[in-house]
Amino acid sequence: MLSRQYLRENPDEVRQNLADRGMADDVDLDRLLDIDEEWRSLKSEGDDLRHERNQVSDRIGQLKADGKDEEAEEAIERSQELKERLEEVETRADELEAELEAGLMEIPNVPHEDVPVGEDESDNVEDRRHGFDDLRDLPETVTPHYDLGEDLDIIDEERGAKTTGAGFYFLKGEGARLEHALIQFMMDVHREQGYVDLFPPVPVKSSSMEGTGQLPKFANDAYRIGGEETTEYDDDDLWLCPTAEVPVTNMYADDILLSDDLPLKHQAYTPNFRREAGEHGTETRGIVRVHQFNKVELVNFVDPEESYDRLEGLVDEAEEVLRRLGLPYRILSLCTGDLTFASAKTYDIEVWAPGTDGDDAPEQGGRWLEVSSASNFEDFQSRRAGLRYRPERHESAEYLHTLNASGTAVGRVMVAILEYYQNEDGTVTVPEALRPYMGGLEVIEGHEKVGESALGSGDRD
């Protein structure tokens, strides 16, 4: 969250930030500034009242000792008046402070000065592409991953919908092996880069969701345990993890780290759960936009002076996964209108999936799939979660900077592999980097379907 001082001293910048993000009507900034002004006035009055009350209390004893009972009684009455007024002032100040804190929670982070201004994803800026100079030979017609997955019987959306609902799916046989292989491969890559493994809890408290910026604004996208996501919640209510960023970032909430601890780099694999209640929703077919997906998350805690250098390094660390897999991709700088609520600057990494044509695709066709967003949140999350460090052991604690990136979204990387590495005969070549994780398997050939439903497919005699 933004500090009160920043809001107080930079109202025009905050107002412009809201406009650049398309949120000008979402926050009553003038109301918050009025609340802050009244709160500061009451705090000042409260200090004056306490000072006067202390002075009066000191006089009462002296007046009684001097035998000035009438004046002492007047002083007692004045002390009671001051007490009653102080209670009124403190009660009102507490109400205003709660309202101010709630209002600050609704204000997004201020973008870094070099973030391009734009309304939505169409205004994002492409920085570079990788892997398009030496593409492998593809089939004349690339089969979309959902049809290929069904043909090979490695993706079963129908039975996933039957057991849980739309937007859930089964991976089977070589599909499941591929998913497991990707997870372990990614974690090995990032371990080489100096990341410390974590296996965090999957349920997270409301306070943790607030700490990283998922609540209160994005409650509709989250799965709440034991309650409706839209009803009022308490700090200790539990939610299914939408990203490992939430538990990993909050594991140091209200702690004070030392300068020697930084940069602190953690990686964590978790299943993630999102309702996808926004404008995109879930796609009709396939595993690109679903309610449950696997991801390896990279979370960094850094000295503020080093956070933007670390952001560039974080992008490179996430890219390494795609480079080793031989998948073509591109890097985007997100504009103000496409930044996440908590981010000050974000790079998106989008892998090329050639099986289904989409908007803004390369000349080769297909579509881009976002597999990682590498973001610098500066001290925005730290203020919400209480993440501090001590630059020197004798110095006061300061807010550190947090960054994170997916390293990467496993399901979407699988989509890219199934489409980019498919062959004319309908099989899929396993990328060399993954073969040691799949027992040396070089080609995914699929297997026969089971049950009476397979009889009509021509798979059985």
Automatic annotation (TrEMBL):
Query: Where in this chain does the record put each Aminoacyl-transfer RNA synthetases class-II family profile domain?
Result: 144-431
Pathway(s) this gene product operates in, as recorded in its UniProt entry = Aminoacyl-tRNA biosynthesis; selenocysteinyl-tRNA(Sec) biosynthesis; L-seryl-tRNA(Sec) from L-serine and tRNA(Sec): step 1/1
The answer to whether UniProt assigns keyword Aminoacyl-tRNA synthetase to this entry is: yes
Binding locations of L-serine: T243, A244, E245, R274, E297, N404, S406
Q: What CDD domains does this protein's entry cite?
A: SerRS_core
Supply the alphabetized keyword list.
Aminoacyl-tRNA synthetase, ATP-binding, Coiled coil, Cytoplasm, Ligase, Nucleotide-binding, Protein biosynthesis
**Its domain of life?**
Archaea
| Coiled-coil segments on the chain, per record | 65-106
What does the entry note on its domains?
Consists of two distinct domains, a catalytic core and a N-terminal extension that is involved in tRNA binding.
Catalytic activity of the protein: tRNA(Sec) + L-serine + ATP = L-seryl-tRNA(Sec) + AMP + diphosphate + H(+); tRNA(Ser) + L-serine + ATP = L-seryl-tRNA(Ser) + AMP + diphosphate + H(+)
EC annotation from Swiss-Prot or TrEMBL:
6.1.1.11
| Residue span of region Disordered | 110-144
Q: Which NCBIfam families match?
A: serS
Bias class Basic and acidic residues marks the residues at: 125-139
**Does the entry feature the keyword Ligase, yes or no?**
yes
Instruction: List the InterPro entries.
Output: aa-tRNA-synt_IIb (IPR002314), aa-tRNA-synth_II (IPR006195), aa-tRNA-synth_II/BPL/LPL (IPR045864), Ser-tRNA-ligase_type_1 (IPR002317), Ser-tRNA-synth_1_N (IPR015866), SerRS_1_N_sf (IPR042103), SerRS_core (IPR033729), tRNA-bd_arm (IPR010978)
Its Gene Ontology biological processes?
selenocysteine biosynthetic process; seryl-tRNA aminoacylation
A Pfam family (short name) is Seryl_tRNA_N
Q: What does this protein do?
A: Catalyzes the attachment of serine to tRNA(Ser). Is also able to aminoacylate tRNA(Sec) with serine, to form the misacylated tRNA L-seryl-tRNA(Sec), which will be further converted into selenocysteinyl-tRNA(Sec).
For this UniProt entry, the molecular function terms from Gene Ontology, in alphabetical order, are: ATP binding; serine-tRNA ligase activity
Instruction: Name the chain's protein.
Output: Serine--tRNA ligase
Cellular compartment(s): Cytoplasm
Main location (coarse class): cytoplasm
In which family does this protein belong, per the annotation? Answer: Belongs to the class-II aminoacyl-tRNA synthetase family. Type-1 seryl-tRNA synthetase subfamily.
